[in-house]
Amino acid sequence: MKSISVSFTVLLAGGLFLSACSSQQSAPADAAGTTAPAVSGTETITLKFMSNGSTFTNTEFKNQIQIPVQKKFPNIKIERIEPPTTTTLQELFSSGTIPDIVFASNYNPLKKVQAIEDLRPWIQKYNFDESRIKPYLMGYVKAAADNGEIYALPYNSNQHILYYNKDVFDKFGIAYPSDEQMTWEQTFELARKLTRVENGVNYIGLDVEGLTGFTKSLALPIIDSKTGKSLLTSPEWLRVFNATKETFEIPDFLPKDKTKYSWGRDVFMKDRTMAMRPAWLANMVGPLEELREQGIESNWDIAPVPNFEDKLGKTREAQVHSVILTKQSKHKDEAFQVMSYLLSDESQRNIARNGRVPAIINKELEKEYGAEVGVLKGKKIQNIFVGEPLQDHTIHEFEGDVTKFVTQANVDLANGMDVNTAIRKASEAIDKEVERLSKNQ
Question: For tag attachment on the chain, is the N or C end more exposed, with fewer CB atoms within 10 Å?
């Protein structure tokens, strides 16, 4: 049997890319629509795997990728490499260190360096059954394509929940959030009762983290994909600005630092003085588990993520954590086999048990969610699955370049600027930046 050494390179903060060697054909697809991991020969092959930007802790890497893949492919060697976060994708790409598989949710950085392999030929070759994948995840992948390409396979659905600290609620004698989905207005009312300064300690009732927190409830893009113009003047964005302003006006909420408008997850996880924080599962569950392993535990639980009253039944847009085959890979057959295995029932059951919502359609896996994650023991797991996630908005190629103007709009609102002025200022800045970037392409 050919010895396959797979080096899974995970970059958590920014940048991309590593290297690869040669390949042979792989075995045909199995009944589940994934490829059987059978290859022949004696040559050692190294596949490079990397994650860009998404939270993926060492514990998650070990339990979801390292152990199961080595078990399935006995000759695989898996190692995690973390280059300096200051290294850019272009720098890594120019150095010749190319990954075979990339774990990401935003495909634009890879598209810019022409590094994404269209998966359609590989799906056909190995009879991969894409209908097994949840439609709102596969829909995002297909919407990102220019001409019908399939840029990635969804690995997991990164969904939102409302984390709440039971001790803060108990301290002030306030009932916990409902197991039924609340409106944002109901959540604001709770936040007003819980936000205060007591004995010099800031207790934060709710931190939505500004405008982008509310845009996730409506799956709003910043830039119109057809016109390239700012969408901040739309009625939906006005709704988001008004909701953000309302949270900023809760007495004692805003930090004393006038450049800040939110408190961040450490106030919930470590300081334990935040009552409610809506956030992605991957953003908090892994880090909370690592804290638990260090002996630092919080008395928290899960409620359904709130939404606007007319949107109840929907939650927030789900971030699509995907696996991408690079165009430069010298081992596309073997790499696609590994990607296929990660979408098998066996692998998806494992990631569910380790705290990620599976990408495949299988209600039974929801019942096993978090079974291997100590920090989720006794939590209201069923509340994760209340409501239907929204398909994530398609990310414009310049969205990452203009989010700084949305961030500044948060600061402006926090410092008393009225909503209409903040919208106009941010929209004009976005339009100018998109025009500049378009000319420089």
Answer: C
pLDDT for the residue numbered 54: 62
Map tokens 């991408």 to a residue: 324
Task: List b or e across 298-336, with b for residues whose CB sees 16 or more CB atoms inside 10 angstroms.
Answer: bebbbbbbbbbeebeebbbbbbbbbbbbbebbbbbbbbb
pLDDT band at 166 (very low <50, low <70, confident <90, very high): very high
DSSP string, 115-164: -BPP-HHHHHHTT--GGGB-HHHHHHHHHT-SSS----EEEEEE-EEEEE
Instruction: Tell whether 58 and 173 lie within a shared domain.
Output: no
Question: Could you give the number of structural domains in the chain?
Answer: 2
pLDDT for residue 63 is more than 50: yes
**Do residue 416 and residue 359 come from a single domain?**
no
- Kindly state whether residues 35 and 89 are assigned to the same domain: yes
CATH (domain of 278): 3.40.190.10
- Residue recorded with tokens 């919502």: 357
Answer whether 228's CB lies under 8 Å from 434's CB: yes
Range of the domain at 240: 160-316+394-439
Q: What is the pLDDT of residue 78?
A: 65
In tens, the pLDDT along 85-109 reads 787 777 877 787 788 888 899 999 8
Q: 298 with 349, same domain?
A: no
Residue 398 pLDDT more than 90? yes
DSSP state of 267: I
| DSSP state letter for 255 | -
**pLDDT for 59:** 76
| 3-class DSSP state of 339 | helix
Distance CA 325, CA 256 (A): 46
Q: How far, in Å, are 46, 103, 135, 273, 351 from residue 388 at the CA level? A: 40, 24, 12, 30, 20
Point out the domain boundary residue: 388, 407, 431. 388
**Is 280 found in the same domain as 179?**
yes
